[in-house]
């Protein structure tokens, strides 16, 4: 090495990488041993890539070299070496992979650490920055590598984790990569053969290449998914998941299934405990790898599942796949679509079964991942029916916090109820106090309480469930059963309605007698059958012009049984100008209740004026 010292070029790390390394070096104290998993995982990836190139008849250097991973430990020298016969790296890929933020995970990891105010070593692999975990235990790391591509020279990368890295020519003559860790004083115990052996065994049982420690074979290569379900233990599944998912927790859900028709498939799927998107990782990518007879065809295969199932991890192995097919053709091949259909259907069925057999686990899943299911309903009509079975909502007749399925709601429906009613409001209290709820409570109809703004689109796209229409409360066409004693007779009611329409002019589309109100005097309803106030609000918030409620787009309903309207009719006969002011105020109040008042200043001005007239009238 000294020989080349003079020719070593110095490079600095990109700022984010240096930041990441500072955290790795100074703040990660627990789970240090995961660096073993990460380095083995990288070596295995590199071997998989060679196997893929070979299976698709592409040229690689040293094509006869056996794919595998050799680890050696030297307790006296305090070093650990991970060597593989994988893909290797050219000078260019060394610079790109080990020093720049080629991975979006770097930023997400830094953000997570900043938010949690503590760093968690076990996250490092999940965020795709596993290589740097070497610096938890080593104060110097060298990487000697020779690329599979003919014409590339061997290179050595050296770094102490701070102050950048050096590049110089390497003496390596075989394809692949050798990573040497010069262990820190307090981490020297990792070079003890017994200790490193037990760690390797823990993390690498499922690596599909041979792993040797100091010349001794440690693992037996196996593809878990090809074995029969009843001979696999839970721990084996969990270890397998933890290895492929870089996760320190067991999975939340797993599905292992095999099918012969319409396609021969062996599949092992997992759902992580945590929704990584909600942890600030940005949009996650599906991590389901596609195999054909245990040969990796495509890591993170695109198109295998719909986008909205991108939180899945695992393996799909199908012997019906052609080995040497390019990724582009694969992605939209008919075969891929067929796989997608079968796999998605099977996974949704599994969710439904879990909901029945193990409701607690299902609700935990729903708590983490409901947004993905809703995305599926809104963006993908193909699985609407299966997804409809999976949504869960709070309801007016169940305790706060308890969620129901649509199927259970339908079972509870009284015989005279024809539709499924949903009310969207920011809180349970707001919903139950809303004028829109009055007609339902007086009829004893259960109402689903929706709180996520997305739910409105869910209702719209699901459209119906089990033959019953889903109906937003605002759009329900319901009569009150018990007729209340009216405060207005028919003639007065039609006179008042006509006068109100004249008073409001173009601002309202129609004034009519309400069939839905019990305690409220008036209500404003969107004239557009397909719109609701909250939808307009969302559109306005997303700054799309012209979608706010404009004049003539709302209907004004009055409650003929409410005493206030009897009094208004009487006032109109005596003092029409004052009655008009009161009517304006009622109009504004109704709009406030519906959440569609853009500028409340005019309302306040009028309200103050009314108060002042009231006070004057009382004094005179
Ligand atoms: P990830 O494995 O998630 O991509 P890492 O930080 O573990 O992230 O590794 C960064 C990159 O460095 C890898 O994507 C790969 O391109 C390269 N790399 C690391 N180790 C090896 C190796 N043993 N052989 C070939 N390339 C490697
Ligand atoms: Mg890695």
Explain what this protein looks like in three dimensions:
- The protein is an alpha+beta fold.
- The strands form four sheets. Strands 1-6-5-4-7-3-2-8-9 form a nine-stranded mixed β-sheet, covered by helices on one side. Strands 16-15-18-17-20-19 form a six-stranded mixed β-sheet. The protein has a five-stranded mixed β-sheet with strand order 10-11-14-12-13.
- The radius of gyration is 33 Å and the shape is elongated.
- The model has no long low-confidence stretch (mean pLDDT 87).
- The structure holds adenosine-5'-diphosphate (ADP) and magnesium ion (MG).
- The site of magnesium ion (MG) has 5 residues, from helix 2.
Helix content: 25-40%
CATH topology group of the largest domain = Heat Shock Protein 90
**Order of strands across the biggest sheet?**
1-6-5-4-7-3-2-8-9
Tell me the total number of β-strands. Answer: 23
């Amino acid at each position: 090495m000294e020989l080349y010292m003079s020719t070593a070029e110095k490079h600095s790390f990109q700022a984010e990488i240096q930041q990441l390394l500072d955290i790795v070096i100074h703040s990660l104290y627990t789970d240090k041993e995961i660096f073993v998993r990460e380095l083995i995982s990288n070596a295995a990836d590199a071997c998989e890539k060679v196997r893929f190139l070979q299976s698709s008849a592409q040229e690689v250097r040293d094509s006869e070299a056996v794919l595998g991973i050799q680890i050696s430990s030297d307790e006296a020298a305090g070093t650990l070496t991970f060597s593989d016969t994988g893909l290797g790296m050219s000078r260019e890929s060394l610079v790109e992979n080990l020093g720049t933020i080629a991975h979006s995970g770097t930023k997400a990891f830094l953000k997570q650490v900043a938010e949690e105010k503590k760093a968690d070593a076990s996250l490092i692999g999940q965020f795709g920055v596993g290589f740097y975990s070497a610096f938890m235990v080593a104060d110097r790391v060298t990487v000697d590598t020779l690329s599979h591509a003919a014409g590339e020279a061997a290179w050595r990368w050296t770094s102490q984790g701070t102050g950048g890295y050096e590049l110089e020519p390497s003496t390596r003559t075989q394809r692949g990569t050798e990573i040497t860790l010069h262990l820190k004083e307090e981490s020297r115990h990792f070079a003890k053969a017994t200790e490193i052996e037990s760690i390797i065994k823990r993390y690498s049982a499922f690596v599909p290449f041979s792993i040797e420690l100091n010349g001794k074979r440690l693992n037996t290569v196996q593809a878990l998914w090809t074995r029969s379900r009843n001979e696999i233990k839970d721990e084996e599944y969990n270890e397998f998941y933890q290895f492929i998912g870089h996760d320190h927790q067991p999975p939340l859900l797993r599905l292992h299934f095999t099918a012969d028709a319409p396609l021969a498939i062996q599949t092992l799927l997992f759902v992580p405990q945590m929704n990584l998107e909600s942890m600030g990782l940005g949009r996650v990518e599906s991590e389901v790898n596609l195999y054909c007879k245990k040969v990796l065809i495509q890591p993170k295969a695109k198109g295998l599942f719909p986008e909205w199932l991108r939180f899945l991890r695992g393996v799909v192995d199908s012997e019906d796949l052609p080995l040497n097919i390019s990724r582009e053709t694969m992605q939209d091949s008919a075969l891929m679509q067929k796989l997608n259909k079968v796999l998605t259907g099977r996974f949704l069925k599994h969710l439904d079964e879990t909901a029945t057999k193990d409701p607690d686990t299902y609700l935990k899943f729903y708590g983490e991942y409901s947004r993905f299911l809703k995305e599926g309903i809104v963006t993908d009509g193909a699985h609407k029916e299966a997804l409809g079975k999976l949504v869960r909502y709070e309801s007016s007749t169940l305790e706060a916090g308890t969620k129901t399925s649509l199927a259970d709601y339908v079972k509870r429906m009284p015989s005279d109820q024809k539709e499924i009613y949903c009310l969207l409001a920011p809180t349970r209290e707001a919903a139950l106090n809303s004028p829109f709820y009055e007609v339902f409570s007086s009829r004893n109809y259960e109402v689903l309480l929706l709180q996520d703004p997305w739910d409105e689109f869910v209702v719209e796209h699901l459209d119906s469930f089990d033959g019953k229409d889903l109906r937003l409360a605002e759009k329900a066409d319901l009569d009150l059963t018990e007729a209340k004693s009216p405060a207005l007779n028919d003639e007065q009611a039609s006179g008042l309605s006509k006068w109100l329409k004249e008073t409001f002019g173009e601002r309202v589309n129609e004034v009519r007698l309400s069939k839905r109100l019990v305690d409220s005097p008036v209500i404003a309803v969107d004239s557009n059958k397909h719109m609701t106030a909250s939808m307009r609000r969302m559109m306005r918030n997303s700054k799309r012009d012209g979608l706010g409620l404009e004049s003539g787009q709302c209907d004004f309903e009055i409650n003929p049984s409410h005493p206030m309207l009897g009094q208004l009719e009487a006032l109109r006969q005596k003092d029409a100008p004052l009655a008009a002011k009161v009517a304006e105020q009622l109009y504004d109040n109704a709009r406030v209740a519906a959440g569609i008042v853009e500028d409340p200043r005019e309302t306040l001005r009028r309200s103050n004026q009314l108060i002042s007239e009231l006070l004057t009238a009382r004094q005179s």
